Structure prediction request, 822 residues.
Amino acid sequence: MKAIRQLLPLLVAMAALLTLFGLWVPNFLQPENMLDLVQQVSVNAILAFGMTLVILIGGIDLSVGALLALVGTTTVYILTRNPGETQNVPWLMLAMLAGLGVAAAFGAFNGLCAARTPMPPFIITLSTMLVARGAALRFNEGRPMHIPDYEGLFLAIGNGRLLGVLPIPVVLMVIVFLVMAVLLHRTRFGQHLYAIGGNREAARFTGIPIAANEIFVYTLCSILAGVAGMIHTSQLYSAEPASGVMFELNAIAAAVVGGTSFTGGRGTMYGTLIGAIIIGILDKGLNQAGVHFSSQYIIKGLVILAAVYIDVRRR
Amino acid sequence: MNPAATAERPLLALSGVTKRFGGVLALDNVDFDLRCGEIHALLGENGAGKSTLIKILGGIHRPDAGQLFIEGRPVSIHSVADANRLGIRIIHQELSLAPNLSVAENIYLGREPGGLLGLHRGTMVRDAESLIARLDLHDIGAVGTSVSALNVARQQLVEIARALSCQTRILVLDEPTSALSQAETESLFTTLRRLRREDVGIIYISHRLEETLRLADRVTVLRDGRAVATRRAAETDRAELIRWMVGRDIREHFHRPPHKPGEVALRVRGLCNPKVHDVSFELHYGQVLGLGGLVGSGRSELARALYGVDPIYGGTIEIDGQAVVIRSPQDARRCGLVMVPEDRKREGLVMTESLAFNLALPWLRDWIAACLPNRRKRRDIIERAIAGFGIRAGHPEQGVDTLSGGNQQKALVARWMEHRPKILILDEPTRGVDVGAREEMFAILGRLVESGMAVLLISSDLNEVIQSSHRVAVYRDGRILRIVPAEQTSIEQIMSELTGGRADEGN
Prediction:
């Protein structure tokens, strides 16, 4: 009940935006267009789910956008070294595991630094963002790496449809959402995060292992960046070392519009999901309405500001 | 100057000043006056109202009733800026210098000489040098030195120079000697005596009675928010001051639970870390060991070291005769030792969450298996805590920040009791709670002890420590001076040990 009351303003805002663009843009509310919208939201939503956990414990992760590019290049690099030059499922698995492994290593490093040193997470992840971006740009001299056409399974991650209807990215987003919602709202781990974010000292005095939780949160956030990286790379039909720029900021925006508090301790997965959808509607709606991209930035900035202002005032 | 004339019209006078915080009367109809060129000491136990009085002078609190006069004119102080304008400067125990800036920059912080084109560094340095010369504060050294390079005593002198660089008439010093050595204290006193010449009135606050009597012209004792006596320092002595500070028969009574000590629950030998020096004691089941000491004596640091929050550098801890290694609160809980920290809001409760969240938090394992929260078990844990410890709340899911201090404190104790710990450390369990909740707190303590729990009680209220403990450890500067049976000691005796000469001088 409490959760619904908190989400109500967000749902109202979402409905209002849908109505607005429904009136403004012909065929905006057509099912196919809506499905397309959700598919475009999926990468940002998956990043935002991880970001929500990090912000919830009072941290921030600026490295996810660059990491997304690095995961893409790592995976495609290995994929194109496939000796058989036909689809080879074990080799594909290897390539994807390597990509996710790189993501997990970066996340564990971020978490270790955040938990065991007094360095602020902003600076730690700013640095690892640069490292990850540089590492991604070392692949193929920074040029896009094409995914061979025979890698049907990998291309399906971003472009396929389940039963010919549901886009695979949407299916993945829903799965990640469910797992993360259960993790945050129904496990000891989730309770620990609310305690740590609400009052770190009190959590410590209660006997909650802060460092272990923190390291896990950053690792999880990076692994989700890896998953988003697979989808994004597949959607582009190539790994682009320069992709993912500003994705971290979009993810932060989704979490914050969804009611995640920057001071920590407040936020839900439901809120973040709706936050990501609201930003997605805005992006797609303004685009289809033919608003110049310069104005799109300005409008988006003002909408985020207004959303957060209303949220802060309500408390 | 003519003493009779200044006595008629004091520099500063407080008349009938009263301040209430919720149900607590922090200051009760206090009269106080300060003359030109006088050092007037303000004494009292922790919580007697000294800091409230300072905060009223400094414009941080406003009195509910009463009037302030400066040189006979009624004034009202609404802000720190007002206080400064009226010539009142407060030097707090925690110094407020910018360590990265130089002495001169600190003295003129916020009012640097200069124009549009920037700082007149030369003017600032010259002004600072002439100020220091005028005030005879040469110990500070070169004005270009960075403040972080100075020791605490010199930093204090910089604060004094800063205070006197603007038109300060009333200088308030809160526990200025707590971090100073004997020699530094003497040199500070020489400085303060010299300042009397400048027609400055000084209010001096300290726990150390002997040095206060040597320094001050007059002494006022506060107790329970009332000014109980004002005397010329030459006409009183330590014993009399302690009697006034401690008072008699006006305190409430706590009932000490019957003393039926069982086996040794906790044995600590030679515990050391930077704040705790070679502490050894034994605590039995069914016993309360009170740690009597003043604020800042390092009692909380001992508790934090035992609970695994702060590291231990040396010494051993035994629980039930078994040596244990406690590196974190998780370790401590596993050994059956829990702690209720001093600062409810900072270390105790997750204030952004509900009462229920806080009560259920230590026992997540009992009600969440994998990803299946058991709402019924959670509710039972919460209800047992609320009912068992008389926590008054409208609804368990209400925000814990909406509860009274007493109920928050009860919640903090109650949440450890789902599975009874062997040893409970209570750090200042009655701070900021009203009299009724205080009684309830001690009733709870009595019940737990009678059921066989071992309790280490920390409180700044010596009356409370003596009346509710079986044994009292006199604690000062990170050391246990001695441990005595509670019935064989008195507040006067302990107070005298805590306020006498320094412990490191072989007290």
User: Anything to note?
Assistant: DSSP finds 13 helices and four strands in chain A.
